[in-house]
Design a protein that fits this description.
The protein is mainly alpha-helical and 187 residues long. The chain contains 9 helices and no strands. It folds into 2 domains: 57 residues, Homeodomain-like (Arc Repressor Mutant, subunit A), CATH 1.10.10; 130 residues, Tetracycline Repressor, domain 2 (Orthogonal Bundle), CATH 1.10.357.10.
């Protein structure tokens, strides 16, 4: 098959896949996971049920794929924040702040408890831990964070500390949490 044809088919598949994920997320947010059917998702996505089943076997699989996409977007957002800031300490601070904000914003998401498990979450967490460890290594080399503990341990400390943002009720509390976490990193 010509490359243009393959590209067009692949683009169509990506578009349908995204439409399915978006439609399912909207329906689940409106009606709850237990109330949403494959028929409703197909109708909302503008496709037939047979087409939907070519992509996903059930609603749970769709929601897991949606969550994987959300996690990937968050990782990309954090990487972008890490590139846009100034020196190592500023990049670290920006990433920690962005991570805490993500946690805070999703604290009451109806699918959080249901979807925050599985290999995609563990892989993303490991990727994020490595990313933070790299930022911490750079900041330690610049004398901006402590160097008496391995960067991976400090990255784990940051992640666990900032996960508490899901329990906070105000953005001011999140700011205090980030400041407290960063103070624990000082040399």
């Amino acid at each position: 098959m010509p490359k243009l044809w393959n590209d067009t088919i692949e683009e169509h598949r990506r578009t349908v896949h995204a439409a399915i994920l978006d439609a399912a997320a909207r329906l689940v947010a409106q009606h709850g996971l237990a109330s949403v059917t494959m028929t409703q998702i197909a109708q909302a996505a503008g496709i037939g049920r047979a087409t939907l089943y070519k992509y996903f076997p059930d609603v749970q699989a769709i929601m897991m794929a949606w969550h994987e996409r959300q996690v990937a977007r968050h990782l990309h957002q954090l990487a972008t924040v890490g590139l846009d800031a100034g020196g190592p300490g500023q990049r670290l601070h920006a990433v920690l702040h962005a991570y805490a904000a993500i946690q805070y914003e999703h604290r009451h998401h109806p699918l959080s408890a249901l979807l925050h498990y599985g290999p995609h979450v563990a892989d993303a967490r490991q990727h994020l831990r490595g990313f933070l460890a790299d930022l911490l290594t750079e900041a330690a080399a610049a004398g901006q964070v402590r160097d008496d503990a391995p960067p991976t341990e400090l990255a784990t400390y940051c992640l666990h500390a900032l996960d508490a943002a899901t329990e906070l009720s105000t953005k001011a509390a999140v700011e205090r949490l980030v400041a407290t976490t960063i103070s624990g990193l000082r040399p």
